[in-house]
Amino acid sequence: MKDINVALIGASGYTGLEIVKMLINHKRFNLHYVANTTGDTTLEELHPALKDVVNFQVDKADAKDVANECELAFLALPHKASMGFAKELLELGVKVVDLSADYRLELETYEDFYCEHEDKEHIKEAVYGLPEMYREEIKKTNLVANPGCYPTAALIPLLPFTDFIDEGSPIYIDAKTGVSGAGKGCKPITAFGHLNENFFAYSPLGHRHMPEIEEKLLKHSGKNYNILFVPQLLPITRGMYVSTFVQLNKRVDDPAKILTEYFKDEPFIRVRETPVDLKSVAGTNFCDIYADIKEDSLYLSSSIDNLLKGASSAAVANANIMFGLEEDEGIPKIAYVP
Ligand SMILES: NC(=O)c1ccc[n+]([C@@H]2O[C@H](COP(=O)([O-])OP(=O)(O)OC[C@H]3O[C@@H](n4cnc5c(N)ncnc54)[C@H](OP(=O)(O)O)[C@@H]3O)[C@@H](O)[C@H]2O)c1
User: Fold this and answer.
1) 149 carries an active-site annotation
2) Which of 40, 100, 124, 249 could cross-link with 82 by S-S, CB 3.0 to 4.6 Å?
3) Is residue 300, in this structure, part of any structural domain at all?
């Protein structure tokens, strides 16, 4: 029975659309309120692909309207836009899963890399929405800060190896994404003429997901690492592929065995015997990982769907955990292959 009323703010965006797709089939979450900046439209108008599948009035976002009828709100909004709504919703007793960066980081780090924070009270209460690190904490919180897509794909394969990596070591993270990672808005570097048959790095060694990776690895291991993170844009729509190279402080014979043991109870982590690919995770909540070693140099590769495990299905899985539901309720597992 769909008995938990849910709001979605940011319905016209890519991650908002993915959340709608999952809630259609969700047994308990009932999509009840849908909004964006302007409202006065319908889901079908915003997303013609939903014609004859689901239709919904889309309103201009209003936190009080949400609180009157919903227990949970997904905020699929750009950073800065989210915290205004989250603050009001939390004060009105609504649980929040925020897909933006507004609650992911320590206040100081956030203000260094984003902007002044407008909700200093709740940033302390937020739980980082990576169940592979914080499942027990997610069960108890009213505010989940959904991780960035790059940090999701970079952090997960590194978690089992921090005992083998000395404080201060450089960790080289070579990351590639499809263009949907930038959202639906068009920018010169995402314009077809520039992107098609092209490949390039952007914000190398200075991307705002780097402090997120650094901060979460420090929390996990107690060690400060020198993260050398280079994001690159692929001329594809969805998919994220991360290759990580790191020197280990002692011999590891079988890194795949360490990964398999560490993630044995994780429903959405798959350790592969051959290098990962993008198609096997497209359309799913899986993170695929492959590892190899040469003397004490470790190579890790991981792949996710940036819109799903990197955003929307991670958000719905977090909400399932917050409400004590089956973690995989409504979560896609079958990839878009071929
Ligand atoms: N795309 C990814 O792969 C990905 C991965 C991880 C995290 N994220 C994060 O998820 C969030 C959403 O990303 P996206 O890719 O879905 O972005 P998007 O495609 O650009 O969509 C943004 C949505 O937010 C709405 N919006 C913007 N400002 C608003 C406001 N002030 N009030 C109400 N609605 C507002 C927009 O509505 P209008 O259409 O009316 O402007 C649109 O529906 C971002 O914070 C992003 O960093 C995205």
Assistant:
1) yes
2) 100
3) yes
